[in-house]
Amino acid sequence: MKLLHLDTSALGTNSVTRELTAAVVARWQGAHADLTVEYRDLDSDPLPHLTGRSLAKADPAQAEADEATLQQFLSADVVVIGAPFYNFSIPSTLKAWIDRVAVAGRTFRYTEAGPEGLAGGKQVIIVSGRGGQYGDASPADFQEAYLRQVFGFIGIKDVEIIRAEGVAYSPQHRADALAAAHASIRSPLAEAA
Asked: Which DSSP string corresponds to the chain?
């Protein structure tokens, strides 16, 4: 079993999402002795943003790196993504990664009946960190709703969100939000039962 662990927060050791993704991955490691974890830090090692040159595969080294990113995603059974809420959306580094894994003909295709996802059969766990409080259906949410849409579009129906919000209000809000988020991390064994 393979797990891909992505962190995107620019806040380093002060990051809520980094703390929580580490806890999710530790829970999976504790439940699956055969688990292989691949880690990518898209803040310290970002992918370049998608351009016409990258789409045209004008740079062979970049085209090879893009293919490796796609293969790393496709080979994962579980993907754990730290996705902080930046300016009502996701970090641009995460968007650059999505642009490498949402690929026509590879993870989705268009048919006469409409789009069809080709990357199903995996689980995505999104760890959402929010300074404010937005809830489940805020019109200001271009983060969780976007991520659900993207992964659903490419065929992934098993999308779980672990959220810590209101973390910027006060130290107590942060502590409470983190405690609630940690408590919401489910055991992989319980899900399989």
From this structure: -EEEEEE--SSGGG-HHHHHHHHHHHHHHHH-TT-EEEEEETTTSPPPPP-HHHHTT-SHHHHHHHHHHHHHHHH-SEEEEEEE-BTTB--HHHHHHHHHHS-BTTTEEEETTEEEE---S-EEEEEEEESS---SS-TT--SHHHHHHHHHHTT--EEEEEEEE-TTT-HHHHHHHHHHHHHTPPPHHHHH-
Q: Which of 167, 173, 155, 188 is nearest to 24 (CA)?
A: 188
pLDDT of 118-128, one tens digit each? 999 999 999 99
Question: pTM for the full model?
Answer: 0.93
Q: Please, which pLDDT band fits residue 109 given cuts at 50, 70 and 90?
A: very high
Cα separation, 104 vs 96, in Å, equals 16
pLDDT tens track for 32-74 = 999 999 999 999 999 999 999 999 999 999 999 999 999 999 9
> What is the reported pLDDT for 138?
86
